[in-house]
Design goal:
Layout lengths: L2 H14 L39 E6 L8 E3 L2 E9 L13 E3 L1 E9 L5 E8 L2 E3 L10 E3 L2 E5 L4 E6 L5 E6 H5 L13 E3 L2 E5 L7 E5 L5 E5 L11 E5 L2 E7 L3 E5 L6 E6 L12 E3 L2 E6 L3 E8 L5 E7 L19 E3 L2 E5 L5 E5 L5 E5 L14 E6 L2 E6 L3 E8 L2 E9 L5 E3 L2 E3 L5 E3 L2 E5 L3 E6 L4
Antiparallel strand pairs: 1-36, 2-3, 3-5, 4-7, 5-6, 8-9, 9-10, 10-11, 12-13, 13-14, 14-15, 16-17, 17-18, 18-19, 20-21, 21-22, 22-23, 24-25, 25-26, 26-27, 28-29, 29-30, 30-31, 32-33, 34-35, 35-36
Length: 449
């Protein structure tokens, strides 16, 4: 779709929604949005919900899964799973199972939720948390890339669902599927699709995005882990950050050359949240192993120095951030993130000192293991999508947490930790929220009127 066509489609959608004033519209074509940083940059967005909550524009039934939606060029892409015979998913999330079933890739019309096409394939699960696929689709230049929980990698033509190429990563690379399945959203760089695959020398693999042919492979680790590969800009030079459960690695994304590597061993291989960069400081965090900040040096041969955290300069139990699944944010020298039992914390980037914490957006009371909310800033406010299916508007500053409004969007449907939760990162695009649980995906109007 050409840029003019996109503009006409957005204008038509704005009119159809009855929006009186124009706003800057944007897609959400991959995990964490257009720039893969979780920032919603659209303007004309409400700061308080209308009476009764925001308007739901459409609802479409889908199956189970953790996959967040991607929104691009008038389409919504999401994955789900249908179990054989429709039987319930095993309640013990730590037992490897799931049995026979079908993974599906769904393409919906963003304006009304109608399913435009779907692709399904048999996929037997033998993993923990066997609810469904994890990775958000990646949409780029008319193609959509998906990675299923058992390592089924696909490239589709976005407008009609034609399979352009596919791979079964465990079979091709002769590796075991990670215990909790593949959860590392692939990233596009130039003509490459970069994936965390696994194995000796192939933990990170770059494929030609148009043909699927391997371009380079790098890094050896016992498992690929669960942290997606991330591209950062270091003094005008692109650097790929690939964090496996044993090391934080910096690679040349053109060649796969390892520029530097720092040890950071994660208990139970639970490296989940993405690294964050502000200036020359790179931050990582994990549930069991606290956090670490590195200072990056963009020399001819890039290097990194540990400022605090990790094995080299461990912090106390009252410092840092033990993030589980919500990728933290850094703003003006302060880190904001959800800690191990749902505590939203503000931490100083330079020292790891905790400034404040609150359970208000997650549990509202006592801490609960892995209680979660996803943080998405939009201008001077933040949208927090919590595991209760609520959407919160708040301000986060070094002075504290100020809640402006909240509304119920979805019903929690997945049993985890003795409670029902929504653990899927939503998309924010074209003035709307696109969110899913294990029964439906919804589109909610968030435009200011």
């Amino acid at each position: 779709m050409q840029r003019g066509t996109i503009a006409r489609w957005v204008s038509a959608l704005v009119v159809a929604m009855g929006v009186s004033s124009p706003a800057i519209a944007d897609d959400w074509p991959q995990w964490l949005g257009p720039q893969r940083d979780g920032v919603w940059r659209e303007t004309g967005i409400l700061r308080k919900f209308p009476p009764g909550g925001p308007k739901v524009l459409w609802r479409t039934p889908i199956g189970a899964g953790y996959t967040g939606p991607a929104v691009a060029e008038g389409r919504v892409f999401v994955m789900d799973r249908i179990t054989e015979g429709g039987r319930p998913v095993v309640s013990n999330s730590f037992s490897r199972g799931g049995g026979k079933g079908t993974e599906r890739v769904l393409c919906l019309d963003a304006s009304n939720g109608q399913i435009l096409w779907k692709h399904e394939y048999e996929c037997t699960y033998r993993i923990m948390y066997p609810l469904g696929p994890r990775c958000t689709p990646t949409v780029h230049e008319g193609k959509v890339y998906t990675l299923g929980a058992m390592g089924d990698l696909f490239c589709f033509q976005a407008d009609n669902g034609k399979v352009l190429w596919s791979k079964k990563l465990p079979q091709e690379y002769k590796i075991d599927v990670p215990p909790a399945g593949y959860a590392t959203h692939p990233v596009i760089y130039k003509d490459k699709l970069i994936c965390m695959v696994g194995g000796d020398g192939s933990t990170v693999v770059a494929f030609n995005k148009d043909t699927g042919k391997e371009v380079w492979r790098a890094v050896s680790a016992t498992e690929p882990g669960y942290c997606p590969p991330m591209l950062i800009d270091l003094a005008g030079k692109p650097v790929l950050i690939a964090w496996d459960p044993e090391h934080l690695n910096a690679l040349d994304p053109d060649t796969g050359e390892i520029l530097w590597s720092k040890p950071f061993r994660c208990q139970m291989n639970m490296n989940i949240v993405a690294p964050r960069l502000e200036g020359d400081k790179l931050f990582i965090s994990s549930y069991f192993n606290n956090s670490m900040v590195l200072k990056l040096y963009p020399t001819q041969k890039p290097t990194a120095e540990v400022i605090w955290g990790g094995r080299e300069k461990p912090v106390t139990r009252s410092q840092g951030l033990n993030a589980m699944m919500c990728t933290p944010f850094i703003r003006d020298g302060y880190i904001y993130g959800i800690c191990s039992k749902g505590e939203l914390r503000c931490v100083k980037l330079d020292t790891g000192e905790r400034i404040w914490e609150t359970l208000a957006p997650t549990t509202g009371g006592r801490g609960v293991q892995w209680a979660n909310a996803f943080l998405v800033p939009n201008g001077d406010v933040w949208f927090l999508a919590n595991e209760k299916g609520e959407l919160i508007i708040a301000r986060l500053t070094p002075q504290g947490y100020e809640e402006l409004d909240r509304a119920k969007i979805l019903e929690p449907t997945h049993l985890a930790g003795g409670r029902e939760v929504v653990w899927s990162h939503p998309a924010f695009a074209n003035g709307c929220l696109f969110a899913r649980n294990d029964k439906e995906i919804v589109c909610v109007d968030l435009r200011a009127k």
